[in-house]
Amino acid sequence: LLMQTSEMLRKICTRNLVRKYCRGLTAERKVQLQQKVVTSAVFSGKKEGYLESLSQPFLETRLKESDLNPKVLQLIRGENIKYVTPVIKYDRNGFKARERLLVLTQSSAYVVEMAKIKQKIEYSTLKGISTSNLSDGIVVIHVPEDKQQKGDVILQCEHIFETVTKLCILANKQSLVKVVKGSLRFRVGSGKEGTMVFSVGPEPQVFKDKTGQLTVV
């Protein structure tokens, strides 16, 4: 009986401590924890660098709305901008690296070049999000095969865990995130596909190899 009473009191005490901790959390801290839970579900035990990312709080955004070109803001007016970050976009054919911005709103993802919107992906049409199991910052956003889309989007992000977490939460597509090993296929457009190969080397690099594949080291 004493042991049962002691166990009951211990549970009550633990519950009270948890309740006190939760009530003391700021709104910002709650959002952080909610996002980190999603990051854990997607990446824990799957991608290199995840453990090191745990102590790094996510920022609300990497660039402010005021940092965007007024023409871009006009084009996406009416949409609530949630997150903006600089990215490197790789062309689907020649794999040339281009400096771009990734803008995430409440309903769509935009790849932006200065004052131009290069590609818009509505979350409702998003088919998947792929990353490798290595420590690179590559993410592929898979889009449907239709005339409105040029093909899948290949991006390199400095804050890969933060960016992918924000994207899959806003799109409500957590289950569509895949962490792959070795290689992945992406759609180039017009029914064509390309291959991306991931490997380990002495220094990070992304290049087109002799066979025409995009190699990420």
UniProtKB/TrEMBL annotation:
Transmembrane segments: none
Domain TH1: 47-217
Entry's Gene Ontology molecular function annotations: cytoskeletal motor activity
GO terms for cellular component: myosin complex
Domain of life of the organism encoding this protein: Eukaryota
Protein name according to UniProt: MYO1H protein
Organism from which the protein derives: Elachura formosa (spotted wren-babbler)
Gene: Myo1h
